[in-house]
Each structure stands twice: as C-alpha cells, then as structure tokens.
Amino acid sequence: MLAKSKKNSSRLFLMVLLLLSTSCNHLFYYPQKDVLYPPENFGIIYEPKTFTSLDGTKLNAWYFPAQSGEKKSKINKDPKGTIIQFHGNAENMTSHYLSLAWLIHEGYNLFSFDYRGYGKSEGEPTPEGTVKDGVAAIREILKDERTSAKSKILVAWGQSLGGAIMQRSIEELAEDERKRLHLVVLDSTFSSYKTVAASTLRKSAVTWLISPLAYILVSNSYGAEKFYKSNQSAVLIVHDELDNVVPYSNGKDINHKIESPNKTFWHPRIGGHVRTFAADQPEWRQKLLQFLESTKR
C-alpha cells in the first residue's frame, strides 16, 4: 500500500511538472487581438506601420508624431525626440500607447509596437521571439530619418514585461546602435523571469505550493545580465514601492545590478503598477519632462 501511495505521489508530481512546464509562457503573456482604443477616438494623429522581426515574422506598430496646436492635432515639425515603447504583458499596444500618449503633446514622437502574437502581429510570443522583435523595433526607429538628428533624444522605454524584453534586446544590438540610445527607462520591470514567475504563482492559493518549481522550470536564458554590465546609456529606473504586480524588490535589484554611475532611481509610493506617470500624477510628469530635457546631449 505504501509503495502504491509513493507511486501515485510520483505520478502527481510529474503531472504538476508537466503542467507547469507547458504553461510557463502563460505566466508572462496575455495577448489580445482586438483594437481596444483607436487613436482617432482621441483625436490623435498616427501612422500604422508594419515591419519584420529578425526571423521574418511580420509585426504591427503605430508611429505617433509629436503633436501641437489648440486641439493638439497638428504635427510638430520640430520634435524634441522619439520614444520607443516596449509595452507590458497583457492586451496589446492599442491600449498601452495611452500610458505614454501625453508625451506626444509635450514634443516627443512615440513608436509603439506589438510583439509576436499580440494584436495584428504574427506568431506566438516566446522569450526568444520577443527579443528578436525588440531588436527589430529599435532598428526600425534607428533607420527612420526623423530620429537621425543629433539634437534629438532617443529613448527606449520598457514597461513591466516590456522592460525585461527591452533590456535583452539592447544587449543584442551592435555597439554603434546602442550608442545612439540616449536614455533607457526601466518602468516597473524585472531582471529575473524565475523570480517573477515564482512571485506570480505565490499569489494564488491553488499554485502557492508549487511556486518553488518556477526556479527549476522557468529559464533565465533571455535575462539581462550583460545589459547591467555593458550599457552605456543613461538609465532611469522607476518602480513604485507599493507595486502590487511586480514587487518593488525587483526595482531595487535592478538598481543594484546596473554598474554604470549614470543611473537614476525613482521609487514613489503611489500604489498600483506602471502608474507613476498617470494623468493623476502631474508632479511626476513634470519631473520626467525636466529629466528628459536634462538628458539631451
């Protein structure tokens, strides 16, 4: 009877391992296909774009030129710079662009794109695939003549999961490409897929007991360790101390790992996730605008 019980326990353990290993991607990716918030509903001018990832996967993007005028509906012919947005893990760019759209009206172009499997982009998301997409997105902007002027700032902005993808994507760029990035913003993000997967599993009573398995089954092969040692751009780390999705400890960990002295760490106590620059935080928005101005070189 005891031998049979041990056998059944072993089978159950193997089933849990199999279930978790085949579901790892679902811990990170929650894509939607629908267009959620069309820019025209807000009077925002944009250009739909398509480009290809490093492996030929077709990706979808929106380019928002800086806008001005009484109704903020005229293209600003002299933008201050361009921001490349790496959005978070849920929905798609058609909702996430709104978190940075206010910067369009402050003189900055915005380029938001969908990883494979999100929105109209082809394929299915994986750590390897999304990094290929990130490299291709940065290169798409680097070759755009609107970002070539030396007086314009170029910012790579990663939010939540997008920050992890972005860090590794920057690693994969050639040195001359990396040097063209003036600022890297790591907003509510993380460095370890294992740690975040375990944290996610601990939030549910159903998966709490198996959360340690995340350290075995989730790979960090597309983490960002090299980025912390080799990055030459200015870095702004933003992580709310009360973040209820990606714990604040992740932001502290990134700040500790980045070796460059050209880094800044903001850690407000607002509450929520990726909310530091929300519409109800005008003081943080103003602080960011001043920081962007000071970053120009």
CATH architecture: 3-Layer(aba) Sandwich
Number of strands: 12
**For the residues shown, what is the average pLDDT?**
87
The H-level CATH homologous superfamily, spelled out, is Alpha/Beta hydrolase fold, catalytic domain
Distance between the termini: 74 Å
Order of helices and strands: HEEEEEEEHEHEHHEHHHEHEH
Low-confidence stretches: 1-19
Which CATH class? Alpha Beta
CATH topology: Rossmann fold
> Beta-sheet strand percentage?
15-25%
Largest beta sheet, briefly?
Answer: 8 strands, mixed
Please give the count of helices: 10
Shape: globular
Rounded to the nearest angstrom, the radius of gyration is: 20 Å
Description:
Helix 3 packs across helix 4. It is globular, with a radius of gyration of 20 Å. The longest helix is centred in the N-terminal third of the chain and has 22 residues. It has one domain: Alpha/Beta hydrolase fold, catalytic domain (Rossmann fold, 3-Layer(aba) Sandwich), CATH 3.40.50. It has an eight-stranded mixed sheet with strand order 2-3-8-6-9-10-11-12. The protein has a two-stranded parallel sheet with strand order 1-7. It starts with a helix and ends with a helix. Strand 11, helix 9 and strand 12 form a beta-alpha-beta unit. With 297 residues, it is of the alpha/beta class. It is 34% helix and 18% strand.
